[in-house]
Design a protein that fits this description.
Blueprint (H helix, E strand, L loop, with lengths): L43 H7 L5 E5 L5 E4 L1 H6 L21 E4 L2 E9 L5 E7 L1 H26 L6 H12 L6 E6 L5 E8 L7 E8 L5 H6 L11 H7 L11 E8 L7 E8 L6 H38 L10 E8 L10 E7 L5 E8 L3 H18 L6 H19 L5 E10 L5 E8 L5 E3 L5 E3 L16 E7 L4 E5 L1 H4 L2 E2 L5 E2 L1 H9 L7 H16 L7 E8 L28
Antiparallel strand pairs: 1-2, 1-5, 3-4, 4-5, 6-7, 6-10, 7-8, 9-10, 11-22, 12-13, 13-14, 14-15, 15-18, 16-17, 16-19, 19-22, 20-21
Length: 578
Amino acid sequence: MTASDVRDVDPGDGRLPTPSTTRSPAWSSAALPPLAPDRDLDAPDWFEVVEHFREGLIVCDADGVVRHVSPVAQRLLPEVTPGALLDAAAVPSMADGDFTHRGRRLTARQVPLSGARCCWYVEDVTDRVSRADALLAERARSAFLAVVGDKLGNPLHPDRAAAAVVRLAVPTLAEVAVLVLAPRAGRARWWRASRTDDDAPTVDSGVLAGGDLPTAIAEALTGVEPHAVDWLVEQAVDAGWLPALAGTDSAARVVPLPGRDAPVGVLLVARRATRWYDEADVDLTRAFAARAGAALTTALLYRDQAEVADTLQASLLPVEPAEAAGVQWGTAYRPAQAGLRIGGDFYGSHRLADGGSVFFLGDVSGKGVEAAVFTGQLRQCLQALHRLESQPGRLLRLLNDALLETTQAHGQGRFATIVLGVARPQRDGGLTLTMAGGGHLPPLVLRNSGEVESVPLRGMLIGVVPDPRVGEVTVRLAPGETCLLYSDGVTEARGGRRGDEQFGTERLVAAVTGCQRMPAPALAERVEQVTCDWLAQGDHDDIAVLALRASGPGGRGPRHLHSVPELADIAQPGEIDA
């Protein structure tokens, strides 16, 4: 029962407000004793009703003298006594509505009565306000942690994630936040965010030797949260982390950031002692640290995996041909999956003891990582076998046997096509090329006359049968002439006007016709560019090009400027013979 169940209207006869029949059906006028016109304020049956109100009741006469104080009002405002002036009581101004008295939150409401009298209703709302404040605080904490989870879900780089952690901690958790990552190679990196006035926090970073870490930080890195907090500020100041709080009364806490097996780092939060860290603040800091630890663990794991991937990719990328006397090399490589940077096409060369060079270009079945791994195995086999055999046909058969053994052992069932040759320089600056074919596209030779010849090289796939048929041919390059090797990613590139036409060998021949004086690197680049223009950013297979040019006496071709056919001049199929 509350005083709101009573009308805030004076009956006009000096009596208390009568019960309301409209606000609470349970309070009907028939349920109350009848009131005589001359009933005064001391009617005992009315005060028995008032005593059960949740609100306290204070009735004052026209002079402000207290005429009546209900038991609830007497408990809330013991200074108010009947017969004394209300203003004389040591009570904050009730006219403000809400006020604090004796550690309780009260609310007051005044109702005018007849004859210039008034009635005050006083209610204790401490618990209600506390619950509302707690709800608002919990909503604020939940909103803060939701923002933290959203912001820390994006950075996959440890440095960016660490900077985001300390930036998010200020100013909600601290005026200065310092994050120290677990030492790596004896050195610990740290990030700090500091708030100055109302500006956005500034972030800086540094490195400390593992042995120079403050004791509290080193202890927290073992997973133990320091309980003695009085000396944390001193250690942080000595480390140079709290310049803005040095010399002032400050509060600080240290919490570990959970990792997979051990803490990934430690978070130090500090602020002026006017905002001490209570249990709710510490719980919020721990919840923040848990999210920060998960984000940093993910970022560090991603970094480690990226480092491994980069190392493996570097080992699987095609290796540029080794420099050799009388040979100018040109290469181009574009994997089908550009994000991986690796694929199933490969090329390379190895120098021979007699001054010649073993060179090769090939294509393994499949795409992506698995094809690149098989390519790496093939290249390793070639690197070892060329020391035992330099005759191209026999070397290719040895490679076939090695690949068969590898694929059968791993159950891969993969195969490869390849052109493998040996280039030997001649006295006049030319080259003699002896090439063996393993099911690959025939090379092209650009003669000084401008003619483009297709080398009649045939053979079977490598890694399929124990004794494959291997074709072999010898070609001589005069000084300035070039032999061009390419993968089917060039000739089978689909594009053109309809988007599904293959580039084909005829278009390739047309593209390199008139390019006989181009250096080998420029020629390889041109083949790649023409192919990509034909694709028009469409999907494609791995593309690999290897050009070797007889550089002439002295090992270098003459400098020149020479025009090449425009891409628009490349003939369509059937136009070459016209």
